[in-house]
Amino acid sequence: MDIRQLVPKDYSAYFAHFNRKNYPAFFQRYQAMSEPFWAQLTLQETESAAETLVEHCGTLLRPFSRKVNLFDLKSLFAFYTVPAALEYGGEAGPAFARQLMECWNRRYPKFSFSQATHAELMSGFENTKILGFNIKLKDK
Question: Which pTM was predicted?
């Protein structure tokens, strides 16, 4: 699998689906699409693969929508690529997640992100505060 395929053509749509209702299904879709890449990735390839992916993102930026493109790509990596790599496991997945985050944050410091697992991201949908009171949301 070509690493550039980790950035789907509709990458902008992924942030729009980062909500309590749609995120689990979109994450599973992304995870299934990226699994062949994780299966063939070796620990020795993680740094060059991360650099190649960040360089590829540079080719996707458009002059009048550069900030929007960077935000969408950062969101794709933070909410989908990194958690999928961490979920896949092994040595290469977490190493790639770290390398991707470091490479991206070096190249685009104003659009930096941190690592989080799928479970950590999902936990953000569980509770909310309204007027300072913790409100437990019920599943629908």
Answer: 0.85
User: In this structure, are residues 115 and 104 in contact, taking their beta carbons and an 8 Å threshold?
Assistant: no
* pLDDT tens figures, 62-95: 888 889 999 999 999 999 999 999 999 788 999 9
Q: In angstroms, rounded to a whole number, what is the distance separating the alpha carbons of residues 55 and 107?
A: 9
* Helix (H/G/I), strand (E/B), else coil: 121: helix
Count of beta carbons in the 10 Å neighbourhood of residue 10: 8
Exposed, middle or buried, 76 (CB in 10 Å: 0-12/13-18/19+)?
buried
Domain boundaries, the chain: 3-136
Contact (Cβ atoms closer than 8 angstroms) between residue 51 and residue 104 = no
Q: H helices of the chain, where?
A: 11-16, 23-40, 46-60, 66-76, 82-88, 92-107, 118-123
For residue 129, list its beta bridge partners. 134
Provide the residue type at 45 as one letter. E
